[in-house]
Amino acid sequence: MTTTATLTDTRTFEEKLDLFAQVAVNVGLGLKPGQELVMTAGLETLPLARRITEQAYKAGASLVTTLLTDDAMTLARYEHASTESFDYAAKWLYDGMAAAYASGAARLAIAGGNPELLSKQDPDKVGRANRAVSQAYRPALELITRHAINWTIVAAATPAWAASVFPGEAPDAALAKLWEAIFKASRVDGADPVKAWKEHDANLHTHAARLNEKRYSALRYRGPGTNLELGLADDHLWLGGGGTAKNGYYCVPNIPTEEVFSMPHKDRADGVVTATKPLSHLGTMIEGIQVRFEKGRIVEAKATRGQEVLQKLIDTDAGARHLGEVALVPHSSPIASSGLIFSNTLFDENAASHIAMGQAYISCMKDGDKLTDEEQVAKGLNQSLIHVDWMIGSSELDIDGVTATGTAEPLMRGGEWV
Amino acid sequence: MTTTATLTDTRTFEEKLDLFAQVAVNVGLGLKPGQELVMTAGLETLPLARRITEQAYKAGASLVTTLLTDDAMTLARYEHASTESFDYAAKWLYDGMAAAYASGAARLAIAGGNPELLSKQDPDKVGRANRAVSQAYRPALELITRHAINWTIVAAATPAWAASVFPGEAPDAALAKLWEAIFKASRVDGADPVKAWKEHDANLHTHAARLNEKRYSALRYRGPGTNLELGLADDHLWLGGGGTAKNGYYCVPNIPTEEVFSMPHKDRADGVVTATKPLSHLGTMIEGIQVRFEKGRIVEAKATRGQEVLQKLIDTDAGARHLGEVALVPHSSPIASSGLIFSNTLFDENAASHIAMGQAYISCMKDGDKLTDEEQVAKGLNQSLIHVDWMIGSSELDIDGVTATGTAEPLMRGGEWV
After folding, report:
1. H helices of A222-303, where?
2. pLDDT, tens only, A327-349
3. Please, are residues B321 and B345 in contact by the beta-carbon 8 Å criterion?
4. Does B168 touch chain A (CB under 8 A)?
5. Interchain proximity A50–B67, CB inside 8 Å
6. Which fold is adopted by the domain B7-185?
7. Given an 8 Å threshold on Cβ–Cβ distance, is A92 in contact with B103?
8. CA B21, chain centre distance (Å)
9. What is the domain partition of chain A in residue ranges?
10. Over the stretch A69-83, which tens digit does the pLDDT of each residue have?
11. Which residue in A48, A302, B3, B244 is a FRET match for B383, CA 20 to 30 A apart?
C-alpha cells in the first residue's frame, strides 16, 4: 500500500523509536494508568529506555524504576573478584523486584546486550553467577511464569550486538541496519503499528486454538540430525500472542513474537535433536548443539563451540536436563525471511521452531495453577532454575502431531504449517 | 615537599581518578573482603563509579550492585506524570536496600548531580516526591544514621555541576577545574593520600575530644544576621572524622570531611540565624535563608530565592522545624580556602560551620542506642523524615561555648578555632 510505504519511508529514526516505545508500552506491556513499572536495561539501550519511560508516564505510570546495568562493571567483577564470590547474588534486589510485582508493578526488560560479553570469562565463574542469580530471582520469576502480572521483553540495537549480526559493516551502518531489522520484526514499520499487532495477535490465537482442538499426545520431529518424539504434558495448552495476566491486564510478553507454544511432558522425550541456530547464553555463543533424550532426560549433550557452558547449563539442577517448552514457528515468519541470524533468543526463537530446557510455564497447563506442585509435576510439568530456549526449526524440518490413539498427522512440512 | 609536588603534577587524570577511587573504597568505606557493596550514582558519574567498582572488587567485594539514575528519566516523570503519582515511591527498592544493609552490605553514594535539575519543576510535585522517598527510605536510612554499617559519600564532577561552580568557563575547562577541586578537597593530590587521610582523621578526633571534655550546655552564635543560642542535647557527643560502625568496620562517612559535629537539643534553640551559602535542595537552589527559632522550633522562615521549596521542606513533618545536627568547621578549611561555592552540601558543609534541620544522628548521644525512643527524645533528640544541612559559618562568625554554670568561653573567632 502506497500510503504505508510513504509513511514508513518518511519517518525519522527518532519517530520510529518513539513508535516502538509506544508498541512496547501499549501493546507489549498493556500498562494501565496508576500502575508502577519496573524496567531493566543495559546502559547501551538507554535511548530506547528513555523513550519507554516517557511513553509509560504518558500512559499513566505512577513510577518507572529502571535498573540499568553496565557491561564494564560486570567485566570488572570477572577480572578482579574471587571465584567463590560468584556464588553470591543480590537477593535483596530480586526480592525487591518480587515485592514490586506482588504489589502490582508491571515488568519490562530491554534485551540487546553484547552476545559475546562473557565468552572469554572462566565458565566456572559464569556458571556460578548464573546459578546464584537464578536462585535469587526465583520468587520474582515465578510471578512472571505464572503470568501474575503484565510483562514484556523488547529489544534495542547495541554496537556489540550489531557487530555480531552484521560483521562486515562499519559500526554505524551495522547499528542502523540492526535497528531497521528490529523495527521491521517488531512490526513498527507499517502505517498503524498498534492495528498491525492486533491482527497478528488474532492469527497466533487461531493457530493455538486449532492445536488445542486436536489434543495431540506427542509431536514427531524429522530433519537433518533430528529424530525426536516429544510427548506433550497431560492437559497441556497451546498459547500464542498475548494473554490476560492474573492482575487482569492484557499483555504481549514478547515483542516480536511469532510462536505458538505449549508444555512438553518432562519424562516423554526420546531421540536426537540438533540445533539449527547458535545459542547465546550468558555472553557465550554455543554452536552446533546436539543432544540425545531418553525418557525426557538429556543423556548426552554436544556442542561444536561452548561445550563447557552447555554442560554447566544442563548441570544447573535436575530439571535443567528436561524440557519446559515446545514452540512452533513457520519458517516464513518475518524474522526468518529477513535471512539474519540475530544471535539473540528473542528474535531467533521467533525465526524457528524451538524447545527450551528447564522451567515450564504453568500457563501452558489447563487449570494448572489450581493444582498442587505434586499434581503439576505428575502431569509432566518440569521444574528448574533455568529456562533456556534453543532453535531446532528449519526449512528441512517436518513435524507430525500424534493423536492419543497413535495416528500421526502432518503438522509442518519443510518448516511451514500444512 | 618537592617529591609530593612532582608526583602530583605528573599524575594523569586517570591516575588521579584511580587514587580517588582507592580513597573512596579503602578510607571512606573501609570495605572488607567478602563484603557486598551497594552503590548509588548518577549516569554522569559513571567514570568514577566504574573505578570504584574495580577498586571494590580488588578490595575483595563479593558483589557490587550499582543503582544508576538518569536525569532524563527523572525529568520525564515531572513532564508527563500526574501530580498525585508523586506520592508514590519505590518502597520495594528501598526495603531491598535496607535488607542489604541488614545483611552486611556497605553503602557508597556518589554525589555530584545537577544542582538545578528540578529548579523549574512544580514545587508541589518536588515536595510530594521527596516526602514519599523519605518515608520509603526511612528503614534503610535508620541503619545509616545508627551507623549500623560502614558507608561513605564521595563526589564526582558532572557537566551541570561544573557549570554552576565555574559559570564563566567553557564546559570542558569547567569540568576539569571541578575535578581538580574535588581531588584537592578529597586529599588525593598529595604523595600518599591514604597516609594524608590518617593524619587528617586524627586531627578531627582531637578537636572532638576537646569539646567532649568541655561538656558545654549550649553554643552562642554572633555574626551578620545571626544571633542564636543553641542548646546541646543532654549527653551529647562531639564526633569528627571516621568511626567504627556497629558491624565492626571503620569508615569515614564523608569524603571530604572537615567538620566536628554534635546533637542540638530539639527544644533549645532561640534567636535568628542567616545562611552564608546557598543550599541546593532537590534540584532547587535556596538562597538567602533566614529563620527564627523559639524553643527549638522554626517559627519564621524566609529565603530570597526558593522560598516555596524551603516552606515545603520545613512542613514535611513536625521534626522538620527542629534541629538535628550542629557542626563546626574552621573558615580556613581547604574547601573554604579554595574560595569556591560548590552548591553541593558535601563540600559546602565542610567549608563552613552549619546546622541541619530534621533527623538527629543517634551516634551523637552517649549510649543513645541503648535508650528507648522516648528516652532519646527526652534528652533532646529530634526525629524527622528529613535531614538537611545548611551553612551558617563565615569569617565574621563568633561562637562561644556556654558551660553548665552559664559561663561563656570563646570557641571560634572570625570563623577560626580560638
Report:
1. none
2. 999 988 888 888 888 878 788 87
3. no
4. no
5. no
6. Thermophilic metalloprotease-like (3.40.1830)
7. yes
8. 19
9. 7-185, 215-236+259-417
10. 999 999 999 999 999
11. B244
